[in-house]
Structures are given as C-alpha cells and as structure tokens.
Design goal:
Length: about 375
C-alpha cells in the first residue's frame, strides 16, 4: 500500500465539483489585490510611484468624457467578437480565427464603402453590414466543414486562416485598392461620409449594436432550440447523435453564426473607428476576446462588463505611456501581471491542487 502511494505524483490538479459563490468572489477580489500589489512592486522598481500610476490609469480610462468615449470605442469590437467566440466555445469548437473573420468582414464591407459610396447612407451601411456578416460567416464555415466531415483540428485551421486574411488585406492595400493619391507608404483611401457609422453620444453607433447583440446571444443560448442543440453537442457529440441531432449541421451552423458576428465587428471597426481598411483592423482583438470570453464564463452579460474593464486597462495603459513616460513594454508587462493574477484566480476556482505528503496523498 505504501509502495503504491509513492507512485502517486507529487502534485495533482483535479477539477472542482463545485465551489461556494462567496468563496469564488473572495478568490477574485484577492486576485485583483495581489495583481495591484505585484504591479506596484514592478512600478516601484522602475522608479515610479504606484499610486500615481494607478490613479493616472483610472483618470485616463474614465476620468473625463473624452477618455470614457475612447474606452467605449476600444470595448465595442472586443465585446462583439467575444460574443461570437462564445457561440463556438459553447459547442467546444475552439475558434481561434476571430482575427481573420474580423478581417474578412472588414474587407467585404470596404468593397461597398470604396466602390459604392454614391449610395444613400442607410442603404450603404446596411449593405456593408450584410457583406461583413456573410464574409465573416463563410470564412468561419471553412474550418467547420473540415471539422464536421474530416475531423480536422479546428484550432490549427482557424489560426492559419488568420494569416491568410491578413495577407489579403496587404495585397489589396498594395495592389487593386491602393489609394492613387497616397504619398509614401501604400494605403487604402479613407471612406466617404456615407460609409461611416453615425455617432451616438459621441461614439459610433456600434455600441448600440453591441448591446443588442448581448441580449440576442443570451436569448439564443438560453431560450432557443438551436442554442440548446449546440450546448448538447459541446457536452457530448454521441449523446447529441443518440438524441437524433444532426451534429455536422449544428457545427457548421454555429460556426457560421460565430464567425458572422466577428465579421460584423470587422465592419464596425473599419466603418466606425478606422474609417478605412488597414491590415491592423483586427489589432489583436480576436485573441484578446478569447480571454474575455473565458473570464466571463461564456456569459453574454458578463462579457459586456469584462470587455469594458479590458477597455479601461488598455486605455489607461496608453495614458501612462504618454503622461508618465512609461515605456510601452513596461505598460504591457503591467497589463500582463494584472491578467496573470485574474486568470489565475479562475484556475483555482475551477480546479484544486493536491499535494502528496508522507508517502500518501493529502487532499
């Protein structure tokens, strides 16, 4: 018995069956406190006053009306993309291709913005939105079909398609869509006024679309047959098949919707924020949205809050760079420290660590 116990690993990680809500809240609060303390030590080592830096970050993110608008502008594509990813993740389809889906949505929308700018603004914006949704969705269908029919690894395929989408934009920028009046580096012309999203309360109307999508995704997942089906497929494909569900159809349909929402985010980013098409239209949003979705536990309303907090973190980091002369690398390290502790708290909420003591396993 003793010999058998010694064969146990020194450390084991096991999934928690459940954790009291109060304890989970305590873990998250403790994680934030530890993140601020650790970040403060890092800032002190750089010769900065941590309290001044944190106060400047808060002021830069929400301290003024202009700052708040910029924070919301950052949060819009992050929130929408996270909602799209949530649909795929609920089905256990690991969509790592949101960056590419954003790019394809922006490309399709930009075609109408550049070559049909004489259309009335409502018609043009509607066409751009539909084009972005369809292009993003169809781009997402590619890995879904391969997964459904051939069992390919969707993580690798969606990831590789990100690079293809990015290179398509570079080709368009340096070739057929190059602005003939551009001086120096090649670029795509700015959109005409008719192709730009209108502003509401000082921010482009994408924030209204984001709020509507939060409600729609929640309803879809909670109260529709399709939402139930994708959850069952995510839990166990064999169970879904036994229940008579067409698993292949569900995978393709869900991935189309997931990527379509990301494509809409690309249209809004090009039309509302950038007002043109650039190869940085996604700007890492597709990868950050994965973190947002997991931190929110795939809850649409939590995604809205977490996206705003991420926007505050990014906007605040930019502010300390300009006002306190903190290097971009140091600001990114500070962001990383905060995210490390926050994500770490989610790990300990979902799992527990078991150490072996004295030749036996201590749980």
């Amino acid at each position: 018995m003793h010999a058998k116990a010694n064969h146990q690993p020194l450390v084991r990680v096991v999934k928690r069956v459940g954790i009291p809500r109060a304890r989970a809240i305590v873990y998250r609060i403790l994680a934030v406190v530890l993140a601020l303390v650790t970040g403060g030590i890092f800032l002190w080592a750089l010769g900065q006053n941590p309290f001044t830096v944190y106060a400047t970050m808060a002021q830069g993110a929400v301290g003024t009306t202009i700052a708040l608008k910029e924070t919301v502008k950052i949060a819009i594509p992050l929130c929408i993309t996270s909602l799209g990813i949530t649909l795929a993740f609920k089905m256990r389809f690991w969509n790592i291709g949101a960056e590419g889906q954003i790019c394809l949505g922006a490309i399709a929308a930009s075609y109408f913005a550049l070559f049909h700018s004489d259309w009335p603004q409502p018609v043009l914006l509607t066409a751009m939105a539909v084009a972005g949704i369809l292009a993003g969705g169809l781009w997402g269908v590619i890995p879904a079909v391969f997964k459904a029919r051939f069992g390919t690894n969707e993580t690798l395929l969606t990831l590789m398609l990100n690079y293809v989408a990015s290179y398509i934009i570079q080709f368009l920028r340096e070739g057929p869509w190059k602005d003939p009046g551009a001086m120096g580096f090649p670029k795509i012309a700015m959109f005409d006024k008719a192709a730009r999203m209108p502003t509401v309360l000082g921010v482009h109307a994408g924030w209204i679309i984001a709020l509507v999508l939060v409600a729609l995704v929640f309803i879809y997942l909670k109260f529709t047959k399709q939402g139930y089906e994708l959850s069952v497929v995510g839990e166990n494909e064999n169970t879904a098949r036994y229940a008579g569900m067409d698993v292949r159809k569900i995978i393709v349909r869900t991935m189309f919707l997931s990527a379509a929402i990301c494509g809409l985010a690309g249209m809004l980013q090009a039309s509302g924020a950038d007002k043109t098409l650039t190869d940085t239209v996604a700007g890492g949003v597709g990868f950050t949205a994965i973190t947002v979705a997991w931190l929110s536990q795939l809850n649409p309303f939590a995604i809205l809050l977490v996206s705003f907090l991420f926007g505050c973190l990014e906007k605040g980091s930019g502010t300390i760079q300009s006002l306190l002369n903190i290097s971009p690398s140091a600001a990114e390290v500070l962001q990383g420290v905060i995210l490390f502790f926050v994500l770490g708290s989610e790990f300990f909420i979902g799992f527990r660590v078991i150490w072996r003591k004295g030749g036996a396993v201590n749980e």
